[in-house]
Specification:
The chain is 35% helix and 16% strand. By secondary structure, the chain is of the alpha/beta class. Strand 6 and strand 7 (135-137) form a beta hairpin.
Length: 370
């Protein structure tokens, strides 16, 4: 069986390619090697020589038509991710790219037997909460005025009380930033067109995925990269809000396993699944664990800044995917240890993080409480 991975030279894509090769699949990758994720537009050394590599953009009709020839299944992982305000790029890359994928399969009558779409926990927005008076609530984004006052917790839109965060299941989405909107639009294209044209399709909503090969050059790639760079350069990492926000971290190898479970299991067809650890960790706890594992004692800096579009708490309910026999295997400590082992010989100057922070402040993405 031959599988095409769009964005397959990236973080999740390359680990999935490795797993598929070990399972006996043929693997083809199409990737445009876009900066800043890929600093040099060369095929990464970690991508196996057994992978058939095509340099190309998912929005390029000719490149995608070439990539789809002779393919039995597609893992559609290519996407634009950032905090920047180039809103149209999210729609052009993520949504138009997904629509083109199905357009080519349908119009060229390609015998693609399955499509797996990599989506994101971001589609849930502020997620799912319990109000002591009003029960289960799916709140809107926290008001800007509230954030500017440094009042971080999510309040009930009916009574104004602070609410208790709940595990987020797959039932309801509520995207509230440009990336989340584009990912949900991808889901709608994929599931709608998949059902309409009888192309089995599965959507996987990844939590914060971590591990080796995360780009040092992408501001979106998250807490592990950013905090590691800072601490290895003896600089305090910056924490947004108050650091008590809850997050769900999952190892990239577990995500790759989820991709293959969805590919191989017919019961997954036309369904949506969360892929995470199901475990809540505060950002402050994360910083403390990373400090301890590095043998450092560098307190993070908490200047009262926040990022527009960030959710307060986001931890996934993974019981639905567990029902297919999948489970996360690596703990947060395993994730950090493995990443540190990989990163210490590769770590780059902390200026990468401070420059990304400066640009986000300049564009009004990062703001300060008043």
């Amino acid at each position: 069986m031959k599988v095409l991975i769009t964005g397959g030279a990236g973080f999740i894509g390359s680990h999935t390619a490795d797993l598929l090769l070990r399972r006996g699949y043929e693997v083809r990758v199409i990737d445009s090697l876009e900066p800043p994720v890929h600093r040099h537009r060369d095929k990464p050394g970690y991508l196996s020589d057994e992978v058939e590599f095509i340099m190309g953009n998912i929005g390029d009709r000719d490149a995608m038509e070439k990539a789809l020839q002779g393919v039995d299944a597609v893992l559609h992982l290519a996407a634009y991710q950032d905090y920047l305000t180039d809103f149209s790029k999210f729609a052009v890359v993520n949504d138009a790219g997904t629509a083109l994928l199905y357009e080519l399969i349908v119009n060229r009558k390609l015998p693609v037997r399955k499509v797996i779409l990599g989506s994101s926990q971001a589609v849930y927005g502020e997620g799912k909460y319990q109000c002591s008076e009003h029960g289960t609530v799916y709140p809107p984004p926290r008001p800007l005025a509230q954030l500017e006052r440094g009042e971080w917790e999510v309040r009930c839109p009916s009574c104004g009380r602070n609410m208790k965060p709940l595990l987020i299941d797959e039932a309801k989405v509520n995207p509230h930033n440009q990336y989340a909107v584009s990912k949900y639009s991808q889901e709608l294209y994929a599931l709608t067109l998949g059902r309409r044209f009888d192309i089995p399709t599965v959507v996987l909503r990844y939590s914060i995925t971590q591990g080796p090969r995360q780009s040092f050059y992408n501001a979106y790639s998250g807490i592990l990269r950013i905090f590691t760079i800072c601490l290895l350069n003896d600089m305090p990492p910056i924490i947004y809000e108050d650091g008590r926000q809850l997050r769900d971290y999952v190892h990239v190898g577990d995500v790759a396993e989820a991709n293959v479970v969805a590919l191989e299991n017919d019961a997954a067809d036309f369904e949506v699944f969360n892929v995470g650890s199901g475990q809540a960790t505060t950002v402050l706890e994360y910083a403390a664990r990373l400090n301890a594992l590095l043998g450092k004692d560098i307190k993070p800096r908490i200047p009262g800044e926040f990022r527009l579009g960030d959710s307060r708490h986001a931890v996934s309910d993974i019981s639905k995917l567990r029902g297919l026999g999948w489970r996360p295997k690596l703990s947060l400590e395993d994730i950090i240890n493995e990443y540190l082992h990989w990163a210490q010989d590769r770590v780059v100057a902390s200026g990468l993080h401070t420059e990304a922070h400066r640009v986000m402040k300049q564009l009004g993405v990062v703001r300060s409480r008043r």
